[in-house]
Amino acid sequence: VGDSSVLSCPLNPNITLLTWKVSPKVGGPCNLGYRADTNTTDRTNCSDSINWKFGPDLSPDLEIQQVGIAQEGNYICEVVTPEGNFHRTYHLTVLVPPRLSLHCDEHGNPVCQAAAGKPPAQVSWLQESNSSLEEESHDNGTVTVLSRLSACNANVTDITCVVFHPAGNWSESIAC
């Protein structure tokens, strides 16, 4: 989320026609086209964040600026040349890193939360294993994972929560 992504298309010096067909999970389809004989481009229903990387005369690559969950979906590049038609398909999946928080509940038990991650984060504890896990799905496709540690060992002063996610791993410690 928030980064730019560049999708490449097969480069061929004899391109007659080049089309990017975008089918996002959210919203309608978008098309970008280039005709070599007239050296013209056309775009249909594409947001300003989706565009040619450098311009069709330099590169057939597609750039998605400030990627968001709404850009998830299929991206197909179709190239027409005298030698034949070629295509490349991408399925764009957007990772959303969770926000980590750790606090003590009203009973003095540590509570670790990995909020609004996509895909859901894995939450675990370094020192203890007696915990409960809850997941809450959100409308935007993200998931909040909450782990509550119960029956803490009184000899342990700092409890460490560890969050594993494809966008990164984090840990935080607390004394309850």
From TrEMBL:
Top-level taxonomic group: Eukaryota
Main location group: membrane
Domain Ig-like: residue ranges: 60-175
Mode of membrane association: Single-pass membrane protein
GO annotation, biological process: regulation of neuroinflammatory response
Localisation per UniProt entry: Membrane
Species lineage: Eukaryota, Metazoa, Chordata, Craniata, Vertebrata
One Gene Ontology cellular component: external side of plasma membrane
Keywords in alphabetical order: Disulfide bond, Glycoprotein, Membrane, Receptor, Transmembrane, Transmembrane helix
The protein, known as: MOR1A protein
Pfam families xrefs: C2-set_2, V-set
Family: Belongs to the CD200R family.
Coiled coil: none
One MF annotation (Gene Ontology) recorded for this entry: signaling receptor activity
PROSITE patterns from the UniProt entry: IG_LIKE (PS50835)
